[in-house]
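Priority: medium. Attachment 1 of 2:
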């Protein structure tokens, strides 16, 4: 995931946790919302509707049409009623009259079900080759290759030959196309649009994608000479060591260049140093295009860095000024920072595209570089000017800029107030009502689909209102994800909730671990989702592994069983004591402790050995090898400042000792 430096959005691990949460756990709503078996006389109106809904589903499955219609007629405005109508229409899709489709689309416009029904309806229309009708119902937002192929075929059938202009990009991919594309591709080929150059491009993509059957098929479509290069490409892909015999690859043309370069990048995956030798040797005998060199150098340098050859990677990219891959530049920048080679840091910073030079991260390191190299002016700015501007931002780099200037932290908080009309409007959104009913009846996957399909069609202001609605329901994960969808990050009450405060206060008092630190770890680990479980088998608010929890419980003589980990009253005491142990292990340093909580203390000690206690804290954090851990540490430290603001406590990211300590 790309880290949003202003917003402190969740890490990739957190996104995985979100998905698992939606599939595995219950959202926090009022108790006893799920229907239970009661006599009809004791059911609430909503519970009665749920019972009728379930009975209608059974009647439809048994093809009891009259009973189904009777039950549907009793549902009134029950939020999930459209799902029954949808299922009934799908059951008769082959013979369904067009007016029934139109009625459903009219009744439920811009809905998830309308989108699903339209796509299924289009498949039936395509089979019947009713192309005029197909064009009428097609929506370019449908992310379905087969539907797109039929749409282009429909345009061709209605005398729109410009449809052929869109086929090449659709066809030129490494995976096989669905059967519905066959007629379109045949027409496109008959029109002379399938050139040997395009066939070659798709052939290389299919080899790279591991689609050997498609690759073989395409190779046989090439003329004889090009077919021999295709064979060489497949051979070099499987065995890049063939590059040792250079006379086999001495021809000078674009096809052979691609064969050689694919062999080099394949070799780089296992032995980047050897691949670099091949690249240097073949560069003397072959004339590679600028784009070919750029792509190959990027892949080769990336592998050199992964395989611990940073000097070779630095030298290689330094001699190829056209290389500007952001991930590669980030890694080269980190290596230069680890060496405190400020001239090289400056060189890499200058290669970033202009739009990234406006980000807090780039501006912070530019200011640090200016200080180190005694550059007093860069494009009309001094380092102090840059720090001053950054210090107003609610970000990790903004906060450490404020620390450098001894200025207050820029904790921007712009809550959105909603009036009664706005509440009434968002609470009556049909898609959100359906999502809520799915949440309440423990159908998390459908709830998630309805919610996000609905909000993507709302204006920004209403998406923010939807976040308030999710917060009202007590669903902090959904709240934060919805604010992210709105790209609104200044609603701190919603983005940084305060839950389980009494338990956190008790844990902080008993362990002497900073309350701000504990609550920041919980926010980063689980967003206060009590019963969440990660793919790594970590549980609960502080995402404890059972083995860690067991060791901690034994150490502190706390009664424990694994099922306790999804209970706040057990998870927080155990997690806070584990934090206490880590802090003691790392001499009270919150940077190292946060890194160890995420990546493990063993890895952090390895990183300490590499840095040899020579690096300022900001550089040490920036060069953490794991993207997730680097992001994690930056988040937790920044959250500590934000939660201090939310709790009315002194705002401190790090102690004076931590700021001065070399790591």
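Attachment 2 of 2:
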């Amino acid at each position: 995931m790309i880290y949003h430096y202003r917003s402190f959005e969740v890490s990739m691990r957190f996104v995985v946790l979100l998905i698992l949460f939606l599939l595995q756990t219950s959202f926090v709503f009022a108790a006893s919302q799920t229907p239970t078996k009661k006599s009809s006389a004791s059911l609430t109106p909503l519970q009665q509707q749920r019972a009728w809904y379930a009975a209608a589903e059974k009647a439809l499955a048994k093809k009891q049409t009259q009973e189904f219609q009777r039950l549907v007629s009793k549902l009134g405005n029950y939020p999930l009623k459209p799902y029954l109508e949808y299922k009934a229409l799908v059951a008769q899709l082959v013979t369904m009259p067009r007016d029934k489709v139109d009625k459903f689309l009219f009744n439920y416009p811009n809905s998830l079900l309308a989108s699903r029904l339209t796509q299924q309806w289009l498949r039936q229309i395509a089979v019947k080759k009713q192309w005029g009708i197909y064009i009428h119902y097609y929506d370019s937002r449908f992310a379905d290759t087969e539907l797109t192929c039929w749409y282009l075929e429909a345009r061709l059938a209605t005398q729109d030959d410009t449809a052929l202009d869109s086929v090449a990009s659709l066809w030129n991919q490494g995976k096989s196309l669905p059967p519905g594309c066959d007629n379109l591709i045949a027409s496109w080929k008959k029109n002379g649009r399938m050139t040997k150059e395009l066939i070659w491009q798709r052939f290389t993509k299919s080899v790279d994608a591991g689609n050997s059957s498609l690759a073989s098929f395409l190779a046989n479509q090439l003329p004889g000479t090009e077919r021999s290069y295709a064979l060489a490409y497949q051979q070099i892909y499987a065995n890049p060591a063939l590059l040792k015999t250079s006379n086999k690859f001495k021809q000078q043309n674009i096809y052979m260049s691609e064969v050689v370069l694919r062999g080099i990048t394949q070799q780089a995956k296992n032995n980047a140093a050897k691949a670099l030798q091949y690249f240097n040797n073949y560069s003397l005998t072959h004339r590679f295009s600028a784009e070919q060199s750029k792509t190959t150098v990027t892949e080769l340098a990336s592998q050199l860095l992964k395989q611990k050859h940073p000097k070779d990677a630095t030298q290689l990219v330094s001699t190829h000024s056209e290389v500007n891959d952001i991930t590669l530049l980030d890694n080269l920048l980190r290596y230069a920072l680890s060496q405190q080679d400020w001239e090289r840091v400056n060189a890499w910073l200058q290669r970033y595209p202009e739009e990234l030079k406006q980000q807090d991260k780039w501006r912070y390191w530019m200011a640090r570089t200016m200080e180190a190299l005694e550059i007093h002016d860069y494009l009309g700015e001094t380092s102090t000017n840059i720090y001053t501007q950054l210090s107003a931002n609610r970000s990790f780099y903004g906060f450490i800029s404020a620390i450098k200037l001894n200025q207050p932290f820029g904790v921007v908080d712009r809550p959105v107030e909603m009036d009664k009309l706005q509440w009434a409007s968002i609470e009556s959104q049909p898609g959100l009502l359906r999502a809520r009913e799915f949440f309440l009846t423990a159908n998390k996957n459908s709830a998630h689909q309805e919610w996000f399909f609905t909000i993507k069609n709302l204006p920004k202001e209403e998406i923010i209102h939807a976040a308030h609605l999710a917060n009202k329901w007590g669903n902090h994960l959904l709240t934060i994800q919805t604010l992210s969808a709105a790209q609104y990050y200044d609603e701190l009450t919603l983005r940084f909730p305060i839950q389980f405060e009494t338990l956190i206060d008790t844990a902080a008092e008993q362990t002497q671990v900073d309350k701000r630190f504990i609550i920041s770890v919980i926010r980063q680990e689980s967003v206060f989702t009590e019963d969440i479980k990660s793919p790594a088998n970590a549980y609960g608010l502080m995402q404890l592994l059972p083995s860690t929890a067991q060791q901690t419980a034994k150490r502190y003589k706390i009664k424990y069983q694994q099922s306790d980990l999804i209970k706040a009253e057990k998870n927080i005491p155990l997690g806070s004591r584990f934090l206490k142990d880590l802090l003691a292990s790392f001499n009270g340093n919150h940077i190292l402790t946060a890194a160890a909580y995420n990546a493990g203390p063993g890895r952090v000690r390895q990183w300490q050995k590499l840095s040899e206690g020579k690096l300022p804290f900001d550089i040490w954090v920036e060069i953490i090898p794991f993207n997730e851990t680097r992001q994690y540490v930056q988040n937790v430290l920044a959250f500590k400042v934000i939660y201090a603001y939310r709790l009315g406590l002194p705002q401190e990211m790090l102690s004076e000792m931590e700021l001065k300590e070399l790591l």
